[in-house]
Amino acid sequence: MNSAPIAIADVSPAQFPAVIALWEEAGLTRPWNPPAADLQRALETETSTVLAAVAQGRLVGTVMVGHDGHRGWVYYLAVTGSERGTGLGRLLMQAAETWLVDRRAVKVQLMVRQTNTAVTGFYDRLGYTDADVRVLAKRLD
Ligand SMILES: CC(C)(COP(=O)(O)OP(=O)(O)OC[C@H]1O[C@@H](n2cnc3c(N)ncnc32)[C@H](O)[C@@H]1OP(=O)(O)O)[C@@H](O)C(=O)NCCC(=O)NCCS
Predict the structure, then answer these.
(1) In total, how many domains does the chain have?
(2) Ligand 1 atom closest to the CA of 118, numbered from 1
């Protein structure tokens, strides 16, 4: 773990540019999901938030978390390149899980793009397993 103390709290508007830059650096943005709109929507919705990890005044990680009334969901987990492998991804996932437990969620789920094979080992280490479901989707906008 990095020796600098890490603070994890809801993202503030002043952090928006750094959050979006991190999501782009981490390869999480897609043209059809404008990140600023995703960020704004998650923060304005009562049952979701975006948590930011800050070390020495610098944004070093994020995780978006929400509760849909049945399950909890995690999106936009990202750790800046220089801090990866220091335990920060685990810390952010723990913070997201705690946020959900505080809201009485009993299960957390997340979606990993089929192309993101690099992250499989990370979720394995954290005890996540294949849910053996097909995810269907339809755009409403
Ligand atoms: C995924 C990500 C958040 C992990 O963050 P991190 O800070 O490097 O992870 P940690 O240091 O907390 O790792 C926790 C454990 O997972 C292991 N781990 C981390 N990345 C791994 C990988 N790619 N493959 C295998 N194991 C991995 C670590 O060795 C550590 O193991 P330990 O339990 O023995 O300590 C980071 O790599 C990232 O931002 N990736 C790009 C964005 C992304 O793909 N997000 C997920 C979208 S679904």
Answers:
(1) 1
(2) 23
Ligand 1 centre from 13 Cα, in Å? 27
* Residue 85: Cβ within 10 Å count: 11
139 falls within a domain: no
Q: pTM of the entire structure?
A: 0.97
Q: CA–CA separation, 113 vs 123, rounded Å?
A: 13
Tell me: the pLDDT tens digits for 61-85?
999 999 999 999 999 999 999 999 9
Sign of CA dihedral 138, 34, 121, 51: negative
The answer to the question of residue 121 being in a domain is: yes
Q: Ligand 1 mean position to 45 CA, how many Å?
A: 28
Does any domain span residue 138? Answer: no
Which of 115, 122, 128, when mutated, tests ligand 1's pocket best, judged by the most ligand atoms within 8 Å of its CB? 122
